[in-house]
Amino acid sequence: MRRKPYQALFIRLGLAVDRATLQACPSLRFIVTPTTGTDHLDLQAAHDAGVRVLSLKGETDFLDGITSTAELTWALLLALLRRLPGAHHDVAQGHWRREPFLGRELKGLTLGILGYGRLGRMVARYGVAFGMKVRVNDISAQALARLGEGMVAVELNTLLAQSDVLSVHLPLDASTRGFLNAERLRLLPRGAVVLNTARGEVLDNAELLRLLQEGHLAGAAVDVLPGDAHWPEKVPADADSASAALLAYVRQSNRLLITPHIGGYAEQALHSTRTFMVEKFLKELSGRTQS
Questions:
Q1: Is the whole-model pTM more than 0.85?
Q2: One pLDDT digit (tens) per residue for the chain, 291 residues
Q3: What DSSP character marks residue 272?
Q4: Which end of the chain is more exposed for a tag (fewer CB within 10 A), N or C?
Q5: CA torsion through residues 175, 178, 184, 190, sign
Q6: Cα angle for residues 81, 233, 20 (degrees, 5° grid)
Q7: Domain 8-60+266-290 grouped into CATH 3.40.50.720
């Protein structure tokens, strides 16, 4: 790789910066990414190279106005329970049938929110608006102090056992990697639905597939798979076996929906986050110049 004289690198999700990239850019001083997650970056290598990483992580006030991922979560839920992809495809094939697409109403179902941060709060409010019973779990007492009307905080095993719909909103870190393991997933009641628009690494995708195949889960919808932050445009041949198995299963079953990490990929969200990060970068430069 040829050495590059760049001092600042603006990068989106789907493009990765590793140690080799940093070594090829010895003049680099900033990496700017308009994302909350930074798993597409080698943070240790950046630290070792003296490169400052600027992201949306921790920008709570700004992010409270970005609703795209929460909206996608709800779109996936509605599409799954009302069997919209299959119904659309059936009409496109020239049919006009109702019987294969019997759906389920949301009203009266229990929505479990795992992780009551920014996105968890948004999705919980949608659940209340749709007449669902909303149950919430989070390790932060401060977060749970902000429960909205119609929401009840419960301990983890209770949340899993009661959730007709489980929506996952955990950040990815050492404590949440593999958090929804096989044992915890099997606490979900028969006929439950799982939504994951957080990070693919927070749940056991092999067990998720087994539960779908066994009929224990009625459905699942995911916008994320392990390692997808490093996938440019196409699923790589070396994708982990659980992801490969899910991608094979989605071709066979209408009980699984997979989208390509498009939660934050909405026109308004892109414009707002990119503008915010440019302004954050300029403020950082201004501060350094003044000091």
A1: yes
A2: 567 788 999 998 778 899 999 999 999 999 999 998 898 899 999 999 999 999 999 898 999 999 999 999 999 999 999 999 999 999 999 999 999 999 999 999 999 999 999 999 999 999 999 999 999 999 999 999 989 999 999 999 999 999 999 999 999 999 999 999 999 999 999 999 999 999 999 999 999 999 999 999 999 999 999 999 888 788 999 899 999 999 999 999 999 999 999 999 999 999 999 999 999 999 999 876 555
A3: H
A4: C
A5: positive
A6: 130
A7: yes
Q: Torsion-angle region of residue 191: left (phi > 0), alpha (psi -120 to 50) or beta?
A: left
Q: Backbone phi, then psi, for 93, in 5-degree steps?
A: -85, 5
Contact between residue 159 and residue 180 where contact means Cβ atoms under 8 Å apart:
no
